[in-house]
Amino acid sequence: MDDKVAVAPRITEPLEILKARKGIERRPILPIIELSVLVLFAVLPLIVADYLTVFFTRVLILSLLAISFDLVWGYAGILSFGQALFYGTAAYSVALMARDLGITSIFIVLPAALLIGLVLSYLIACFLLLGRRQPTVIFVALGTLTGAYAADRLARGWYYLGGQNGIPSIPQMTLGSYEFDQGSVYYYLAFVMLVVVYAGCRFLVRSQFGLALAGIREQEARISFFGYKVQTIKTIVFSLAGAIAGLAGGLYAFHEGFVWPNMLGVILSTQVVLYTLFGGVGTLIGAVIGVIAIEVMSYILADNYQQIWPILLGVLLLAVIMLRPTGLVSLIVSERERIGDFEPSRGRRARWRWGR
Amino acid sequence: MALLEVRGMVKSYRDLTALNGVDLTVEENQFHGLIGPNGSGKSTLMKCIAGAESPTEGTISFAGGDITDTPVAERVRAGLSLKFQITSVLLSLSVYDNVLLALQAHDPLRSLIFSRTRASLDDQVLAMLEQFRLADLRADIAGHLSHGQQQWLEIAMALATQPKLLLLDEPTGGMSIEERRMTGELLQPIKRRCSLVIVEHDLDFIRDICDELTVLDQGSVLDSGTVEHIRNSTKVQEVYLTRV
Question: How, if at all, do strands B212-217 and B31-35 pair?
Fold first, then answer.
């Protein structure tokens, strides 16, 4: 009997752990996927029709929004159903700046959108995350959901914000005398923004700070016993993600030329959750792939099955989320690689020694 | 002045009183054992000291300051470290990353964002893994280690925060005899660096390693003193039905 008890932990070892261990020896796949997506986005306007360039500009901007959700949920373990709140508030704010104050300079409106997202998300984090008691996942999820819902209702009922119709005919974003219209230039502007944000987030999640996030995601309670200020770390990530969502909102407002209440609300917030779950939560590229996959599928299905396309899309999403809860990316990326490794490579360690 | 002084500690959960006026004094560089039957309040006392539970009454002073109401993170920064009864290493991270996570905990967030201490902590992580015989396994994920190795990793992580006082709750739970012997060997060098409060059911292990013992029974201190004193205590013999 005693023998059985002694060996029990080895027998019941979870399968993911064994798989993850196997993954150590595999060659890294994530950088290949990242590079492929980068090259694809870089050449797209050169190979597709103009109307598709406009479509893919939206994909790029929504990818920013999906990355912001991935950062909070996939890396910091904060279930936010309110990313659209920061996105939409920034979009409405820059639309009002352009409509009422005539401010359209890219050097003012995009930093303003980023700052509005940052400040609003920081204020919400102060309320939801920095209380005396440690907040539960459900508390934060409901708190952010309520915020998005309330903002949606407010925008629909406020005449100054255009009510149900939103704010149409926003003046175009400008750079000196140049006006940014839909098309290749706007596409590459969004592309550059996505690359910069992606590179920044990648740097962050692979830093020592990223290791702290990995610890929080796995065992939040344990991490505080090392001396980490867990809620402060979460607040930083939440605010940063809010800033990214704000930037995306600003870009979207000037791309479309109008803003409307759906940009603030629960529907878009949920859509962002789906993008990220579908593509692969906890890998930045998974969020981007989720947006590409869902938007392209919606486009094709809506074109071919005008009546029933939402049902077909829903079934597809359900199938992937049920069969692969870790998303499309995990079909080819091992669990171990997804979680990441913070030990320096042999080469880097040698350089450190050499530098001393 | 003692490093840790617990005075009149009471912890009640509705109808149950887990601790009923417990006093505990731990001097610097002292290994202090907490023993007692199941349910005597040992783990509750450890959790109250570490800040995982709030005491109903009583005070805790540590390194000259009152920490009774101090949050966990600040207690750790003041020099307290706890190894949980149930092993709680981060199973999906590598052995190396587990130790680095513990070692970098006191670094400012700005330096973590720019990975400024990654190079300087590398040597410390490797030394720590070497000391706990885990160096060859550093690339393995912690979830794949044996139970004993996970316990050692957890002790290494608790020590990585360079505590003045380390609280170990059943460090040899579930270990083989050989692993227990090795755990004793691994803990001995710590004595030069910090004090230790250890909860353990293995009386042979605790007699070998500790300077002083406190015996708890039904939430109260039954007796306290040197190992020799406890061995000869008639009160303790009545509870344990034998000499400790």
Answer: parallel
Q: What is the mean pLDDT of chain A?
A: 88
Do A82 and A147 contact (CB within 8 A), yes or no?
Answer: yes
Rounded to whole angstroms, the Cα distance separating B51 from A231 reads 17
Judged by average pLDDT, the poorest of A26-30, A32-36, A185-189, A332-336 is: A26-30
pLDDT at residue A15 in the model: 44
CB contact under 8 A, A225 and B72: yes
Q: Which of A9, A226, A344 sits opposite B122 (nearest CB)?
A: A344
- The neighbouring-strand residues paired with B11 are B19
pLDDT band at A112 (very low <50, low <70, confident <90, very high): very high
Predicted TM-score (pTM) of this structure: 0.85
Angstrom CA distances, B62 to A227, B6, B34, B45, B47, stand at 16, 9, 18, 14, 15
Closest chain A residue to B162, measured at CA:
A226
**Could you tell me if B199 and B168 are in contact, meaning their C-beta atoms sit under 8 angstroms apart?**
yes
Considering only CB atoms, which chain B residues are within 8 Å of A9?
146-147
Do residues A17 and B144 touch, judged by C-beta distance below 8 A? Answer: yes
Residue B205 near residue B190, CB atoms below 8 Å: no
Tokens of B230: 């406890």
Contacts of A219 in chain B (CB under 8 A): 88, 90
> Which tens digits make up the pLDDT trace of B209-220?
898 999 999 899
Query: What's the gap in Å between the CA of A284 and the closest CA on chain B?
Result: 17
Question: Which residues from chain A sit within 8 angstroms of residue B96, using beta carbons?
Answer: 342-343
Alpha helices per DSSP H over chain B: 42-50, 72-78, 95-103, 109-113, 118-131, 147-160, 177-187, 203-209, 227-231, 234-240
- Chain A closest-CA separation from residue B1 CA (Å): 25
What gap in Å lies between CA A44 and CA A56, rounded to an integer?
8
For chain A, domains (ranges, CATH) are 14-340 (1.10.3470)
**What is the rounded average pLDDT of the residues B85-98?**
86
**What's the pLDDT score for residue A1?**
36
How far is CA B18 from its chain centroid? 19
CA distance A154 to A133: 30
The predicted model gives A292-305 an average pLDDT of 91
Give the tokens for residue B118: 């990654």
Q: What is the mean pLDDT of residues A267-271?
A: 91
Chain B residues within an 8 Å CB radius of A228: 73, 105
Amino acid at A318: L
- Which pairing describes strands B212-217 and B220-226: parallel, antiparallel, or unpaired? antiparallel
Model pLDDT for residues A306-341, shown as the tens digit of each residue? 888 888 888 888 888 788 888 899 888 888 888 888
**CA dist., res. A194 & res. B95, Å (int):** 34
Contact A208 B97 (CB under 8 A): no
Phi, psi of B216 (to 5 degrees): -105, 145
